[in-house]
Predict the structure.
Amino acid sequence: MPIRTAIWKVAAQPTQLPDAALPSERLLEDMIVAQPLLLSDAWMLVGRQERTEQGGIIDLLAIAPDGSLVLVELKRDRTPRDVVAQALDYASWVEGLQPEDIAAMYRRFKPGQNLAEAFKSRFGQPLDEENLNQSHQIVIVAAQLDDSSERIVAYLNKRDIAINVLCFQVFSNGAEQLLSRAWLLDPVHTQVNATPSGDGPAEPWNGEFYVSFGQGTWRSWEEARQYGFICGGGGAWYSRTLQLLNMGDRVWVNVPRTGYVGVGRVTGRAIPGAEYKLLGPDGEALALDVLTQGDYHREFINDPERSEWFVPVEWSKSVSLDQAVQEIGFFGNQNTVCKPTTPKWRSTVERLKERLGVA
């Protein structure tokens, strides 16, 4: 079913705002560049109107916190077949971009600025060239979405092609125009589909979830061990993959640059920090009233997009940071949760079972 939104004025006699249209899709592109939050709060724009080797011109290119790229293509009144084919063609070019190509693109987009410095300022972590452009996703921006586009995008996603549609709709409110947006698919699924597969061909997922736990200022692994949880926050990109987890799922927890520190079973759904409770010294209490060794994004407690989210876990085995298990060739990824389909993940899990003594 095509995406349609309706906006009503709140009053004793509600009135519906009439549909309108922007003068051009170029204006929409200009608005996204001026305010990237229109697109996503999880990405940073790195390029605009870049010419491919085949002579095409991509509208926008963004980067995610894990170094993956996001190709953004405006529909521009093309047919569904044309816009999807064009986006896939451009994606084949994006896939081959090297770190120096992306850095040069950013200098053209932001003259006088440095990609590595901008990335560190935007995401609070250094840009790792080894992770840069290990995967990518496609976002088609459209003023309207038709049945054909929806069928094509859904078909590609079922086959693990990371593609989504962001539909903007314009409404008149007197002399003003208002803009709404809606995703065709839950962005978490596109994000997971864009997870790097690693070396070797993909294989069926083994049912074991990978978890990246960002130990440090924001959260404490020792408290996660003690009270039985995993968590992520600071932006939707970090927290929304936690919603992939269901009761009974098994998770293997890795602390980046340290090693694997635990394995356990999920015992509940993801809950925002404002609501998550645990058993503290004086009985059940809100987690943020008990936890003291991390910030847990308390400043965003009333913002569900940026607040910390928690998932309860019963640990089968957990170790302290100084006993973390790390070996050359182990799987690693910056997504908080993912479902790896690479042989490296299977071999990592088998080795961890031996090292941690888990059946």
About this structure: The chain is about 25% helix and 25% strand. The longest strand covers residues 163-173. Residues 29 and 203 are 38 Å apart (CA to CA). The domain at 208-354 is CATH 3.10.590 (ph1033 like fold).
